[in-house]
Amino acid sequence: MKLVPLKLVTIIALDALSERIIKDIKQCGIKGYTITHVEGEGLQGKHFTDWEGRNVRIETLVNEEVATSIMQKLADAYFDKYSVIAFVSAVEVLRREKFSG
Amino acid sequence: MKLVPLKLVTIIALDALSERIIKDIKQCGIKGYTITHVEGEGLQGKHFTDWEGRNVRIETLVNEEVATSIMQKLADAYFDKYSVIAFVSAVEVLRREKFSG
Amino acid sequence: MKLVPLKLVTIIALDALSERIIKDIKQCGIKGYTITHVEGEGLQGKHFTDWEGRNVRIETLVNEEVATSIMQKLADAYFDKYSVIAFVSAVEVLRREKFSG
Amino acid sequence: MQQADIIHTLSRSLASPMVLAFVLGVIATLLRSDLKFPEGMYMGLTIYLLFAIGLKGGVKLSHTPLIDFLLPGGAAVIMCCIIPVLTYFILHHLAKFDTVNAAAMSAHFGSVSAVTFSQSITYAETAGIAFEGFMPALLAIMEVPGVLIALYIARKKMATDNQNNEVMRELLTGKGIILLIGGILIGLMSGDQGYESVAPLFDAPFKGILCLFLLEVGLVTGRRVGDLRKVGLRLIAFSLLIVGINALLGSLVAAFCGLSVGGIGIFTVLCASASYIAAPAAIRIALPEANPGYYLTAALAIVFPFNVIVGIPLYFKLATYIHPIIAAL
Amino acid sequence: MQQADIIHTLSRSLASPMVLAFVLGVIATLLRSDLKFPEGMYMGLTIYLLFAIGLKGGVKLSHTPLIDFLLPGGAAVIMCCIIPVLTYFILHHLAKFDTVNAAAMSAHFGSVSAVTFSQSITYAETAGIAFEGFMPALLAIMEVPGVLIALYIARKKMATDNQNNEVMRELLTGKGIILLIGGILIGLMSGDQGYESVAPLFDAPFKGILCLFLLEVGLVTGRRVGDLRKVGLRLIAFSLLIVGINALLGSLVAAFCGLSVGGIGIFTVLCASASYIAAPAAIRIALPEANPGYYLTAALAIVFPFNVIVGIPLYFKLATYIHPIIAAL
Amino acid sequence: MQQADIIHTLSRSLASPMVLAFVLGVIATLLRSDLKFPEGMYMGLTIYLLFAIGLKGGVKLSHTPLIDFLLPGGAAVIMCCIIPVLTYFILHHLAKFDTVNAAAMSAHFGSVSAVTFSQSITYAETAGIAFEGFMPALLAIMEVPGVLIALYIARKKMATDNQNNEVMRELLTGKGIILLIGGILIGLMSGDQGYESVAPLFDAPFKGILCLFLLEVGLVTGRRVGDLRKVGLRLIAFSLLIVGINALLGSLVAAFCGLSVGGIGIFTVLCASASYIAAPAAIRIALPEANPGYYLTAALAIVFPFNVIVGIPLYFKLATYIHPIIAAL
Ligand SMILES: Nc1ncnc2c1ncn2[C@@H]1O[C@H](COP(=O)(O)O)[C@@H](O)[C@H]1O
Ligand SMILES: Nc1ncnc2c1ncn2[C@@H]1O[C@H](COP(=O)(O)O)[C@@H](O)[C@H]1O
Ligand SMILES: Nc1ncnc2c1ncn2[C@@H]1O[C@H](COP(=O)(O)O)[C@@H](O)[C@H]1O
Ligand code: NA
Ligand code: NA
Ligand code: NA
Fold first, then answer.
1. Which residues line ligand 1 (CB under 6 A)?
2. Do the Cβ atoms of F14 and F20 come closer than 8 Å?
3. By the number of CB atoms within 10 A of the CB, which of B95, C93, D198, D314 ranks highest?
4. What is the domain range of residue A76?
5. What's the total number of domains in chain B?
6. Which residues constitute the domain of residue E192?
């Protein structure tokens, strides 16, 4: 058994944007993702009801290349306009081939 | 595009403590945070119903200084008395200025 | 105050497997864990209703040894058969003794 | 005597379980209680309310000759075009809010609040005031156009490059619209017999659910009350001014359309109410740079409580005065 | 005339709020609406429906002499053994699906859909067709055996080493079974007086809750419609073929057991329906290598809408023809 | 004959859908079923129950002359002061639990269980036993003082520096209290007419919701049953001893206050019940070092099932014996 390094990209965004973002990051070549429903407060203030929609956290395990291309995509298409934040962290996995092409 | 290093502080605590903790960490200078509702088991055992309140995970992206001051604050005001755990991880972001003053 | 390094093991799996997995990782010597209800898409496609069960993310702070033994256990008992992914990340905590024996 | 009459009306309205539940929610938050509804309950109750309003409206509509509906329906659309323009003018030119925030607030004033509407229906039913059956259809009609007009204003002024069609689609397929219009169509198609089979869920407990929902809205509003101090008197004063103008305008238009006293009252409620269900979701995506501290606070913490506690009884009173006058013309 | 009769039956069924709510849900998804039920609501409504079906069934069962129940009960078990074998044969040998996917789908066809069952009860009640009180007990009986048979087939063919007992326990203590059987036992033990005290929750609003639930199922189904294109005509055609065969077989067996017209109709629904509540959960764990793109799509996006929209009225019509013929033998 | 009478009473109580639903929940967990209520449902049902109890109680209270309420109200407060002291003495000095755990458990025994109360109301209504309308007000009164007394004991003994005022505020604005007292006030203010408008939600389905809730409590209790083995016979024996003493004391006090048979029964239930809604939340924050394995297990896995299954019918039986004796004095 050998743990190999990989990247975890985490995106936090409005619920209403999640489908659009997933479509975009699928094009960057991800093989899967995990969504969590979260609440948040940032520059835009808090949400107050779940009808308005809360935030989602989208996480995806990818290789470094794909991570970079996702961050680029988000910077181009979302950061200026929308409440979206994203960060990359280093993790270790088994079965690297499951997550990166 | 250049990814720059930053810290992610994650706090797991009783739901009932979350407002108090957020007030405290706001004083440490955070610019935003994200909350997730979670369940947990630790020394204090599991919760059984959501009326008693579950746990929350509070995450905030900050620079190293703020991270240290948050950990200090938690150690002083919570760790001895309450079911609170916290950890710091290294991440990379774009737009560093959004997260640290 | 001194932050010390530790490992965070994150497991994402079918809700229906969570009790089995927790039993298994308890045997590896964890002292606590946190569960989040998540949704995901991977090779097995998305779930569609919460009756079928969604995914859970199980997180546990452990020392490196325990982290390795958890990953080994998962590789042996789950990876081939079930929709389970896991990864290890490096974090820093106070009170190391709370998390690792 | 007239004044005593109004006070009596107000106090009777205040003593309804719905209004009291709302007040309880606000008080609980101000006392920093840990009362909080579980995630999803707000959404679940909203789905119920909108779908139930639609269903019942659809069944009633099935008994209405289309011709009776044309005039009020047209008037509703016209009001939806006038209100946001007027509101934008007041907020931007008189109250000196900047373009994007004035437009965002106009979208909220230009749309309607389904919960305020429900409460007015409940008020009328409890007070025994009859009204036209097609009112829920007006609610559905008035949900979207005001938002579109306000976005149009914003865009003209700011020359943004936003994809008009996409916003349009999102508005028209928004969950509120789908539930309301879907409910109306199902009510229309399944008729009395179909409605009877589901009435024990969608009719009988409606007021109770509204009561529970208003408790929750009270909790949410309470958290916004703190914002009132931040936004200051300017927002409060101009919001109430706009509500007053819209109410007056609405009641006149309704009376000219020949609606009954109850119909005038409810039409007035629609015009005077501000959306906090359809509009915020749309504005968040279409005008992300607008500040929710303004539009949500105005719609939820100022206009909504004013209408539910004071406005609704007043509008119905107003209707009883206006109706005979216009009818006599 | 006969054809006009069937069209009339179909159109009346189509105009029920339940069917329309399902269609609304599908349409909303296809329009890419943001309507989504809150997390937990699907589960909550399912718990309600299963428990309510059980309770009511239990009370009715308490009025049934055991002897009347033996023959139909036995027939139900036999059908549960025949259907998955037959289905596996068709899917594997005729439709050329591989072993594991054919077995997984057989498990779904071999089990039953509680929601389709509820809709058939509602249909019968609305149309005034009487039926035997022990029908919900048949639903409970038919939930598990088909899955077991299908798993047995899969295992024989693939020689896997899965722990039989554990799967068996999981199936028999699955939430669906617990709620249904538990409800039936509680209904049996607490009788009419006990049932009356909880009927305002479990009886009166049942159809309304079913309507809301079908709206949600429609939303879920809509998201699966895209999969239909991927799986292709082969899955659609063979699914409908299997439904047809199971329906025919079921109605004949029911008629031979001496059930009433209503009983034959509902028994047919049980045989023709595919589980998307009990079976998927079991298959996910027991046959993780099977593709949900096949079994969920078949059960939810093909068989369920077919039954709810077209099947149920047809099966009851069929029952009115078959009943006198077999009774005359 | 008397014994046969008690057995008959017990068996009738056992056959109620509520008790059976609770038992079903326990059994499901013991069978390791995957039945689990969705997140938020427990909270949602609790909100409903507390608010509904309050509302109904408020309306009934509006018909009660204040004077009738003074004596029982005072008695309730006194019982809340005696019970935790007595309980602490038994648990610490006889059962040898340490200070903090004995105090934490005393808080639970000193407060009351709204669900046990609801079940006793349901029991009385089903059995046709009349009771005073102000009972829910007693429930509200008895929720907090016991917890405060127990915390006071803990603090005296441990000389902790906890902020008394903050704990007090948290207790008095706790969600349970807000819902109960808020509901009572709304019921009082909106009266019969207001209540009628929301009764189809808060009155008619109450027993059904209680049944569903007890199913869920059963699931939770089942998960606690394993803890019974760990905590051992000592906790079980002393818990039941305390329940017995409190019940006896309660029924005597109630009878001396001149309550009816039904009133004595319910007052006894209040005294004998242990809180698992208000107290645990408070203790978790105020005495974080106490072990939930003791207090939750006692309240939920020992006292609650005992009261619901055996206690309630016994207390009402007891009331029928005590009432004439004391009345004759
Ligand atoms: N510093 C931060 N740390 C963690 N989450 C953040 C931070 N800033 C913003 N967020 C999350 O991102 C969402 C949008 O941020 P904003 O656009 O600043 O309102 C917030 O609702 C939070 O969930
Ligand atoms: N080793 C651990 N790993 C992850 N989460 C933990 C760990 N220990 C405790 N927790 C979380 O922290 C909460 C409080 O822990 P405790 O104070 O030990 O009961 C638990 O309910 C868990 O959610
Ligand atoms: N690359 C990935 N990144 C993040 N989560 C993943 C990834 N792949 C799979 N998952 C999660 O693991 C679950 C099971 O994956 P799979 O077995 O591939 O269907 C999915 O439902 C996701 O929640
Ligand atoms: Na308006
Ligand atoms: Na079947
Ligand atoms: Na007590």
1. A 12, 40-44, 55, 83, 85; B 30-34, 59-61, 99
2. yes
3. D198
4. 1-9+63-89
5. 1
6. 37-327
